[in-house]
UniProtKB/TrEMBL annotation, chain B:
Subcellular location: Membrane
Protein name: Cytochrome c-type biogenesis protein CcsA/ResC
InterPro entries the record matches: Cyt_c_assembly, Cyt_c_biogenesis_CcsA, Cyt_c_biogenesis_CcsA/CcmC
Signal peptide: none
Entry's Gene Ontology cellular component terms: plasma membrane
Protein's UniProt keywords contain Lipid metabolism: no
GO BP annotations, alphabetical order: cytochrome complex assembly
Organism of provenance: Cytobacillus firmus
UniProt main location, coarse: membrane
Keywords (A to Z) from UniProt: Cytochrome c-type biogenesis, Membrane, Transmembrane, Transmembrane helix
Record-level Gene Ontology MF annotations: heme binding
Length: 174, 393, 543
């Protein structure tokens, strides 16, 4: 009887405690929850680049993909573009593809920007925000490292240095 | 229609005053028979019922005129609150037949209606957020709930007037008198605002707000506290005695100072006339009342009012908030204060049921509960503006 | 410690104050009291005897109503503190919260921010307070409802003399014919909807026992409500997104997995009009200046057909047209779209004319779609304008370079290169609103501003809340419980023959006034005297 009561009380308290602990944990991680979590398969998409070529993410399986979301007005995006460009030239023969997804600006603005920095990697425009919505992008810049199996290895927000970009590309090299 | 409506409200106001006198008379009446209320009380009750009917008439005619339930701004809401209070009183009176409850409830209702009329009274159109049937469902239920809870305040006050010893200095005596002083200040505010508005007092100031913008502010009471870098532009009006920094609302502060000052004067005058504390002066009225019965009235009012309040001010409120504001709960100050009221009365019930807080403790809680309700009505609308702030103006 | 055996033979759990069966006082302390403390029927609601392990200590802590009331009071005060200054979610996004509070409210604001009160309701300690109330609800209820149920279930009809004597409503009298009096009283109590139990010629009339469960029912409701609130944090249960959508634009609705699209067919803003609307509103409209009457987005909802990946041109099938207004959200599946904000007259198109500055002669108009500008505009006859740069939301950065702040055409600026037959190499001109800069000195031509075309933008909140039904269920159960406990009363009347006398006792959990009236009518004409209210008599003697 006594024992039974103790067991009962312990169980109830544990259940309540677990519920509270979970709620607290969830409340403090809710801002960090990513739509596309590390380890998951990156959602597939098809976007057209400035030359009219279609890029389907799943076509790049077997290669590492450095997926960068950017806008022309975003200062850190602008700053990391030349670094990405340099590293792309190094790594593209080693099987790392860079896809730069513009968040739905005008062709004109994107073209001018691309010309200014002489960008070698394909730039695609996400006109109706479908891809941003699928990846849950906010804020810019946002970068996903995708390995050769199409899985997300890392998610980075904020500016990157040339050194870190190099390391990241090294990471997803097949 | 609007004229008929306001005349009906005026009629109700006067009738409530007269009914109070009759209820008071019924207690003073020497030849009251042992059982049941006497003729004075019966007349008082009838006058209250007629007054209530008149105010119901005001409500209905105004509804017809506006095309929506007249509970959309502070004037209409507070008036409705007053009406519900009278309604709740009538119902509870019919159960318990205690004339003294009228002596305490009706003046509160009268004060409430008078206070309401200090706000803009014109019929205003509904902004999009208010265009919903939930407006009258939510607001009226919440007001009725609060009014029933306010009856427990009146009963609590009667309890305290009778039970607090006026011959000895004590905390109880002080705080009871403070409650009385608060009521007198409300009266002071009403008298001072209506006399200045009757004389058409208006003083305009150019001033600089906290964002550095120039603006014009209109005072309806002589400015004791002037706005930040204020310049009087109406000639022949009082220059402010002190200038306030921009983050303080000088106009509202001015009103508060005037209310307090007139409250103090009125209170001192009453003390001079009565030659004793207001609490002591009221004590004879409560002489024949049974404390246990008053305690039960207070408790039952809470029991009846609490579910109604919860339904109106929390549940219906959440349903409407989900429809109009996309979420059922958003920690808006008014919502939070409804929750505080709910928690307070929940605490009241628990203390009473499990800790045996009956009688005087319970009466004090009823008084505090009413102060919270009034805070939610007055301060949250006028001082802590949130999403509900359109209820004032 | 052992169970307590009463004289009547009933075995009660440890800590029982009044025998569950006959009501005899078992606790020594209670024996000298004139009236019984009838809370929880004197049952053993919490055995403090089990207080050895930490589990028992925690359990007993939360089982205390005193602790529960303290939790309520602390939560109440904390909630009030959170309303002193606006919460972070309600401050205008003009500057970071850190600066805003100090800027607007001085040192008080800074202190408020530093103490974390700007986000009080989602702070860890506030959540813990609410959670503790939840735990207290569960444990308090469990600890009380079981013994109370036992006590009410086990109660005998013939209660102990000491029990009856110490009820608040009690009286003894000698009617002429006891049997007849009992029969009459029984009939009358029956007609008052009492259920009657008889035993050895004694009577127990009882009604409304279910009102005693009210508090526990409402606590269950509250717990369900809190569980609903907790589930909100589970990913996928709750969506709160905002969708800005221009007139004419079709956009994917966020969080629908690319399944649903929305087209904005037009935004409507209406103001009350003194001429057209009810005359009674005239005064109020004059006073306020403008009063909004309607915010409305006319939209078309589309569903994607077939399987496409993001970015692919989707095959859209119209689901329905709808007018989203405040208080009238568009609902589909588990989603609802609400009208929450708008932006009027966002620039959409700008027109220019290539003009000779001296003669003022124009060589053709061009219209730039600010969301889809072309690279160049051919005006014919050898006249054309090339867009060298476009800044939708232009400003000069710290180096004096023109940049754009965002992709929204709030303040568009262009660098045009104008080609004319007499200037085949082109002239460069920087054109912004009310501003033209000619970087290479004097031009012969200019892009003269001709006009603008605007569009409205609707802001819609995208909401999904799968916890709503749980919250609603909790609310309904709570209301049932509160009503059950508040509007019904548990009343009991005992009639017992003791040495030729009839003892009458009554008990109710509330509303003694009503109970006394009922007993009065039930006993009227039976010859049994109306029992006294012992508590009221006491206080009357005192006062």
């Amino acid at each position: 009887m006594k024992k039974q009561r103790l067991v009962m009380r312990t169980v109830i308290l544990l259940v309540l405690g677990a519920a509270v602990a979970y709620t607290l944990y969830a409340n403090f991680t809710k801002d960090k929850i990513q739509k596309v979590a590390v380890g998951e398969k990156a959602p597939d998409f098809v976007l057209t680049d400035m030359d009219g070529n279609k890029h389907r993410l799943s076509d790049y399986e077997g290669q590492g993909v450095f997926l960068n979301f950017w806008g022309t007005w975003c200062k850190p995006c602008e700053k990391e573009m030349p670094y990405m460009n340099n590293q792309y030239k190094q790594f593209k023969d080693e099987g790392v593809q860079v896809l730069a997804v513009n968040v739905g600006e005008t062709d004109l603005a994107v073209n001018k920007f691309s010309e200014r920095y002489d960008l070698a990697f394909p730039i695609v425009i996400d006109k109706d925000s479908q891809v941003q919505s699928a990846y849950g992008i906010n804020p810019l810049p946002a970068t996903f490292l995708i390995d050769k199996d199409g899985k997300v290895v890392k998610y980075i927000t904020g500016e990157m240095t040339e050194e870190t970009i190099k390391n990241y590309m090294e990471q997803i090299k097949p | 229609m609007v004229t008929i409506s306001s005349n009906l409200l005026y009629t109700a106001f006067i009738l409530y005053l007269i009914a109070t006198v009759f209820f008071a008379g019924s207690i003073k009446d020497k030849n009251r028979t042992k059982k049941g209320p006497n003729r004075w009380a019966a007349i008082g009750l009838w006058i209250s019922i007629i007054g209530f009917a008149a105010q119901l008439g005001y409500f209905i005619t105004r509804w017809i005129a506006a095309g929506h339930a007249p509970v959309s701004n502070l004037f209409e809401f507070t008036t409705f609150f007053g009406m519900s209070l009278v309604g709740a009183f009538i119902v509870i009176y019919l159960i318990y037949k205690t004339p003294i409850l009228g002596v305490f409830t009706l003046p509160v209702a009268v004060l409430m209606i008078a206070y309401a009329s200090m706000f803009p009274r014109e019929v205003s159109p509904l902004i999009p957020a208010l265009q919903s049937d939930w407006l009258h469902i939510h607001v009226t239920t919440a007001a009725v709930g609060q009014a029933i809870l306010a009856v427990s305040f009146a009963a609590g006050l009667i309890y305290l007037v009778k039970s607090v010893d006026q011959t000895k200095q004590s905390k109880q005596r002080f705080w009871l008198e403070a409650v009385m002083f608060g009521l007198v200040c409300t009266l002071g505010f009403i008298i001072i605002s209506s006399s200045f508005s009757a004389s058409g007092y208006k003083a305009e100031f150019n001033w600089i707000d906290k964002n550095g913008q120039e603006d014009v502010l209109e005072y309806h009471l002589p400015a004791l506290t002037g706005p930040h870098e204020g310049q009087l532009i109406t000639e022949g009006k009082l220059e402010p005695l002190a200038e306030m920094p921009a983050i303080i609302n000088a106009k509202k502060l001015n009103t508060v100072i005037w209310s307090l000052a007139s409250g103090v004067i009125l209170y001192l005058a009453l003390r001079l006339i009565l030659r004793k504390r207001i609490g002591a002066a009221l004590q004879p009225l409560a002489k024949n009342i049974n404390l246990d019965l008053v305690d039960e009235i207070a408790y039952r009012s809470v029991l009846i009012g609490f579910p109604v309040f919860t339904l109106g001010a929390l549940i219906f409120a959440m349903i409407w908030a989900q429809i109009a504001w996309t979420r059922f709960w958003g920690w808006d100050p008014k919502e939070v204060w409804a929750l505080i009221t709910f928690l307070f009365y929940a605490a009241y019930l628990h203390l009473r049921l499990s800790k045996g807080w009956h009688g005087e403790k319970s009466a004090w809680l009823a008084v505090i509960g009413f102060i919270i309700i009034m805070f939610n009505l007055v301060a949250v609308n006028l001082v802590i503006a949130g999403l509900h702030s359109y209820a004032g103006s | 410690m052992k169970e307590v055996k009463c004289d009547c033979g009933h075995v009660n759990p440890i800590g029982t104050i009044l025998c569950e069966s006959c009501g005899k006082v078992l606790e020594e302390k209670e024996k000298d009291k004139k009236l019984l403390d009838m809370r929880y029927e004197g049952s053993a609601r919490r055995s403090q005897t089990y207080n050895k392990t930490i589990i028992d200590k925690i359990w007993n802590f939360f089982s205390s109503v005193k602790v529960g009331v303290w939790l309520i009071v602390i939560t109440l005060i904390a909630s009030a503190v959170g309303t002193i200054l606006p919460q972070e979610m309600y401050i205008p996004p003009i500057m970071p919260a850190e600066e805003y509070y100090e800027d607007q409210y001085g040192w008080i604001g800074k202190l408020y921010y530093d103490l974390g009160f700007h986000n009080l309701y989602s702070s860890w300690w506030y959540l813990i307070l609410i959670a503790s109330i939840g735990i207290s609800l569960v444990i308090c209820s469990l600890d009380r409802v079981v013994p109370l149920y036992r006590a009410l279930k086990k109660q005998k009809v013939s209660r102990h003399e000491s029990y009856l004597q110490r009820q608040r409503v009690f009286g003894a009298s000698q009617p002429e014919d006891t049997d007849k009096a009992f029969t009459m009283a029984k009939e009358k109590l029956k007609s008052k909807k009492y259920s009657i139990r008889e035993e050895n010629g004694n009577i127990l009339a009882e009604k409304g026992r279910f009102s005693r469960w009210g508090p526990y029912v409402n606590h269950v409701g509250l717990i369900i409500f809190l569980i609903g609130g907790m589930l909100r944090f589970v990913p996928g249960m709750y969506v709160d997104k905002i969708l800005w959508i221009r007139e004419g634009e079709t956009k994917v609705i966020p969080e629908t997995n690319g399944e649903y699209y929305l087209k904005n067919d037009g935004f409507i803003l209406e103001m009350y009009d003194k001429e057209k609307d009810k005359e009674v509103f005239g005064e109020a409209i004059d006073k306020a200046g403008m009063v909004a009457k309607n915010y409305q987005s006319n939209v078309t909802l589309y569903k994607k057909q077939g399987d496409t990946v993001a970015g692919e041109e989707a095959d859209l099938k119209k689901v329905k047209d709808y007018e989203i207004k405040v208080n009238k959200p568009l609902k589909f599946e588990n989603f609802a779209l609400y009208q929450v904000d708008y932006k009027l007259n966002e620039l959409n198109k700008m027109s220019f004319a290539l003009t000779n500055k001296k003669t003022g002669e124009e060589y053709g108009d061009l219209t730039v779609d600010l969301n889809h500008p072309q690279d160049e505009y051919d005006l014919g006859n050898g006249y054309k304008a090339e867009v060298v740069s476009y800044f939708p939301d232009f400003e000069f950065d710290e180096n004096g370079e023109p940049v754009t702040k965002s992709r929204i055409p709030n303040n568009p600026a262009f660098v045009f290169k104008m080609f004319t037959p007499d200037k085949p190499d082109g002239e460069i001109s920087f054109v912004a609103i009310r501003q033209t800069i000619e970087p290479f000195g004097d031009n012969e031509y200019k892009m003269a501003f001709k006009g603008i075309d605007t569009k409205n933008v609707s802001a819609l909140t995208v909401r999904k809340d799968l916890t709503l039904w749980i919250i609603a269920l909790g609310g309904v159960i709570f209301m049932i419980g509160v009503a059950q406990g508040s509007y019904w009363n548990h009343r009991r009347v005992w009639l017992r023959r003791v040495n030729g006398e009839v003892w009458v006792a009554g008990h109710t959990n509330k509303n003694w006034h009503g109970l006394k009236r009922e007993i009065e009518t039930a006993l009227d004409g039976t010859g049994i005297m109306m029992p006294e209210d012992q508590l009221q008599n006491q206080s009357e003697k005192k006062g």
